[in-house]
Amino acid sequence: MPVLLMLASDRPMADAKKPTKAARAFDAFLSGDNPTKAKITLDTACTVLGVTDPTIIAWRRGDAKPSAILRGAIERWTSGRVKAEDWADAEERAAIRRADAVEPLAIADTLPPGAA
């Protein structure tokens, strides 16, 4: 029996107006745009990803997004057809840009003033 994962970002999105690029790609993958060209059942997707039917449905519609961990699992399962970063909305992309702009700690930053 699969372990069911429900992480914070699996909750419904407040701004679920338009599905992300990843939600559209995930829906297409499950609908047959995959190496087998066959539709993938909800049961199969739930078993592989360890979530419930309502979770898969919400992801496909763009009403919710998988956690960062599951985004990576989906990218691997879909052989890269659904990119983990494509689940990010504008707010998440802005946070990623801010994080990417942080400079590494330099030794000089840790010395007391005048000790260099």
Bin the helical content.
Answer: 40-55%
CATH names the topology as 434 Repressor (Amino-terminal Domain)
DSSP strand tally:
0
Radius of gyration: 19 Å
For the record, the count of structural domains works out to 1
N-to-C CA distance: 60 Å
**Inertia-based shape:** elongated
Tell me what portion of residues adopts beta-strand conformation. Answer: under 5%
- SSE succession: HHHHHH
What's the CATH class, please?
Answer: Mainly Alpha
Gist of the model:
By secondary structure, the chain is mainly α. Helices cover 45% and strands 0% of the residues. It has one domain (8-110): 434 Repressor (Amino-terminal Domain), CATH 1.10.260.
Descriptive notes:
The structure is a single chain. The chain has 116 residues and is an all-alpha fold. The chain has helices at residues 21-30, 42-49, 53-61, 68-77, 90-100, 107-110. It contains 6 helices and no strands. It has one domain: 434 Repressor (Amino-terminal Domain), CATH 1.10.260. The longest helix has 11 residues, at 90-100.
Topology:
Elements: H1 21-30, H2 42-49, H3 53-61, H4 68-77, H5 90-100, H6 107-110
What would the keywords be for this entry?
6 helices, 45% helix, 116 residues, elongated, mainly alpha, disordered N terminus, 434 Repressor (Amino-terminal Domain)
